[in-house]
Amino acid sequence: MRIVLLGAPGSGKGTQATLMVERLGLPHISTGALLRNAAKRGTDLGLKAKSIIDKGELVPDEIMSDMIEERLGHDDVANGFILDGYPRNLDQAKSLDDMLERLGQAADHAIQIDVDPEQIIKRLAGRAKQEGRADDDEEVVRNRMRVYHEKTAPVIDYYAGRGLLTHVLGDGTVEDVLERILSILKVSHSFS
Ligand code: B4P
């Protein structure tokens, strides 16, 4: 199963993808995590990406498509994946389709996690305190939201047009949200 998770910054894509890995046995590909790891390692790409991420802007498409194409070439994604953070604009969405087509594959589901913007500001302020991520600074979060509405929101219609999109309410506990996602994917779920 090839799943694309969509949603505003802080909507819980990374949180849900981490839980879905355990339930679905699929690898999690997070472009945010790949970029932050590259920055931690101090590679040229990572340092360039960090300065862009810290301003709340999008890293250039060419860097992102090279990164994703490389990752989609690994054996562990042959049977599916949970893609979190990519695509973030229409050009990236088209690139992803082209890459998957070259591999003889296609996305099966696009899940849009909907969360109220004020709730997002609160969540990311909480994470800023806990983890100290520079891009969770309130001003930067507001820019990330602006970039999201301008560039990423059109991707929702792109997947709707292809009949792959389902909206999920992202409010409630992380388990509530996971349960909603698993029922869309028709995977049995129970929490004990
Ligand atoms: P990401 O790492 O994708 O960051 P994100 O949007 O903040 O994450 P997410 O929605 O996954 O939120 P999370 O689960 O962590 O990207 C960071 C940056 O990298 C981007 O701004 C961009 O610059 C760059 N980038 C990445 N991909 C790119 C691309 N394709 N093209 C260009 N640039 C790219 O949740 C957030 C917080 O909410 C956490 O603290 C979590 O604990 C909390 N939370 C989650 N679910 C909750 C719930 N149900 N209730 C309460 N709190 C909850």
What does this structure look like?
It is a single chain. With 192 residues, the protein is an alpha/beta fold. Helix content is 56%, strand content 12%. It has 8 helices and 5 strands. It has a 5-stranded parallel sheet with strand order 2-3-1-4-5, sandwiched between helices. α1 (13-24) packs across α8. The protein is globular. The model has no long low-confidence stretch (mean pLDDT 95). The chain binds BIS(adenosine)-5'-tetraphosphate. BIS(adenosine)-5'-tetraphosphate binds next to α1, α2, α3, α6 and α8.
Quick overview of this protein structure:
By secondary structure, the chain is α/β, with parallel strands linked by helices.
Please outline the helices and strands.
Layout: E1 2-7, H1 13-24, E2 28-30, H2 31-41, H3 44-53, H4 61-72, E3 81-84, H5 90-102, E4 109-114, H6 117-131, H7 138-161, E5 165-169, H8 174-184
Parallel strand pairs: 1-3, 1-4, 2-3, 4-5
The site of BIS(adenosine)-5'-tetraphosphate has 31 residues, from helix 1, helix 2, helix 3, helix 6 and helix 8.
